[in-house]
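Hey everyone, long-time lurker, first post.

I ran two proteins through the pipeline my lab uses and got sequence/structure pairs for each. Pasting them in order. The first:
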Amino acid sequence: MSVEIRGYRPATDHPACRSLWVEMTGAHRQFYDDPTIGGADPGAGFEDYLTNISLSGMWVAVTEGEVVGFTGLLIEGRHGEVEPLVVTEKARDRGIGTQLLDRIAAEADKRGLEYLTIQPVTRNIAGLRCFHDAGYTALSQVTLTKDLRNRHHEWKDGIELHGLQFRY
């Protein structure tokens, strides 16, 4: 099955990409057993994403005429961020995520960016493996969270960094 990676076309790709955003939000809800992630209308997050002033390009993965994944490039100065990378569950494990990452890396290089980052949720083990395999092996920044409310999910033990224990 061939995969076409091409630029996002708002007029035709919007519904599929919004659905992919909802699917991604659903996965985050499952990772953390928290139905409140993404709010009452998870698709609204996609609309907010489209208004991000740093959004400098979006690409979709198409198989058999269907959008099965998308990614975007956020740019701040000489730094690029991959946000998000989404591949529908039924199309995973076919290298589509890697192809999207390769496309965005080529675009970042063409624009003269110095580096790319990506910020997956820590419980997305499959995503972390994909990003690691694609060359995202340097930890440049860590986001630490202090939970101030009684959340719907439990934090898991299991990550050590510089001799410090963290939950995720």
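...and the second, right after it:
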Amino acid sequence: MSLPLMSSAIHAILLVKERYFEFRENCNHLEETMKRILIFIIMLWSLAPFEGAAQTFNIDPSHTTIEFKVRNMLITNVRGTFEKFKGTVFIDETDLGKSKVDVSIETASINTGINRRDNHLRSADFFDVVKFPVMTFVSTGIEPGIDRLKVTGNLTI
């Protein structure tokens, strides 16, 4: 075998050996990563509630709306929302009657889309937001329906 050919063969063997060890190192790293992912999944699974367990959720304002519709002078409906609120929902899947809803709503956050009307609703004529800045809703009963729940409760302003 000629010297340049032998040198190329040795270079190729060394390159293959180097790539093999890089591959093994990457496999070890991948194996460690997979172990970590598996441990993480097992931890998440162990923290997940069992079927039928009671759970408490915080109401997420970015995915929830508090809306109202009021009949105005027997002619039209006024629709609006309250934009600032917080609360919790406790759900007992085994006995919905034990479930609860508790919400606090900032009365000044009323929005009907018309500033003049909103300001009037914030005044002492209606919500008197200076004197009563927060209203609360606390459920007293939850009844299951076919495709929805009927929640009754006390609204305190």
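Reply from user beta_strand_b:
Welcome! Quick read of the second one: Strands lie at 54-58, 66-72, 76-82, 85-92, 100-106, 110-111, 134-144, 149-156. The first strand starts at residue 54 and ends at 58.
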